[in-house]
Amino acid sequence: MGLNNTPSANRIHIGFFGQRNAGKSSLVNAVTGQDLAVVSDTKGTTTDPVYKSMELLPLGPVMIIDTPGFDDLGALGELRIKKTKQVLNKTDIAILVIDGASGKTTSDQELLDLIQKKEIPYLEVYNKADENISVPDGSFLVSARTGQGIWELKEKIGTMVSSDDGKHRIVGDLIQPSDFVVLVVPIDSAAPKGRLILPQQQTIRDILEADAVSIVVKENELKNTLENLGQNPALVITDSQVFPGVSADTPEDIPLTSFSILMARYKGFLDTAVQGVHAIEQLKDGDTVLIAEGCTHHRQCDDIGTVKIPRWLRQYTGKDLNIETTSGTEYPEDLSGYSLIIHCGGCMLNEREVQYRMRCAVDSNIPFTNYGITIAYMKGILKRSLGIFPHLLAELEN
Known about the structure:
Elements: E1 12-18, H1 24-32, E2 50-56, E3 60-66, H2 74-88, E4 93-99, H3 106-117, E5 122-127, E6 140-141, H4 150-157, E7 180-184, H5 198-209, E8 213-217, H6 222-228, E9 235-238, H7 243-249, E10 256-258, H8 259-267, H9 270-276, E11 288-292, H10 304-317, E12 322-326, E13 340-343, H11 351-363, E14 368-370, H12 371-378, H13 382-385, H14 390-397
Parallel strand pairs: 1-3, 1-4, 4-5, 5-6, 7-8, 7-9, 9-10, 11-12, 11-13, 13-14
Antiparallel strand pairs: 2-3
């Protein structure tokens, strides 16, 4: 994928953090070579994180993020600090920008402690400093104003995270060249006008890169397509919402899974999600379930996250459950009140943020699963949908 069509979730996220007026925005502008961020001598000019897609070799497509000052004051300052912490959750490389003239402050050290706790690769960059000021070993001395050290900084950033070497595949490693793969894609009121949703696009691309053949059908065309194909496809992949009907129309000797299950593997939380789904059996009257989505979209009358899954959960368990929903970057810091967390496939979130959310749940001993696995479990087809992952089938049977 080129720069213009690489999804945000697939880009390496590089966050610039620091105090107000440390020169973060000026440094972002110097690194990107354009006036991305508003620059002012007034403290606190950046009030919300600013995102910019660009190409940074040898990393390739990246997302540059300029964040509000971490030493902000008052109620508005607390909100800005909260947003800065949210950005850390999706940051692959952190640039801690320190005012070279003032040196490292307690706020800088607090930020550094957070970065280290989250195990994010980072650089300490001293800005607005002249050549006579010394900095700690491993740090960078730069001037956003004169350009001193900017080229060296970009070169260093480019070596900090290895680019995707092909190990991360949605489905390409599960199929062979010339295989047929049937994708079941409902076209209903929830489908975006004139296009497919991101997991469907990415799966088609991955199938093509594997030199296999993708056949895209609506759910009501699946049975006829399978009968007339002339050979069994290597795999059928379905949207979770039509999982039960697709399972009924797909012969047992044809492997079947869902986009959501494949995305959970792609984002690195499939094993945890399979383990977590069994908590549905322990839900009691009054328990609270969090349904979390990574994107924000207009809610439809029969929305999967706010309507369908809550309805199916109550029907399956027979319990009076409290259902809470979150979307986009909002994700509760305190998870202690939840008995189960059901997350979307995470296609709009990068791998680090999805895994952060998973780890928060695991650390709080809260079961964590996702849409596709939840639906397959409640409809009695989870074992079948995991048939392409033998190690997970073994876990289910133990």
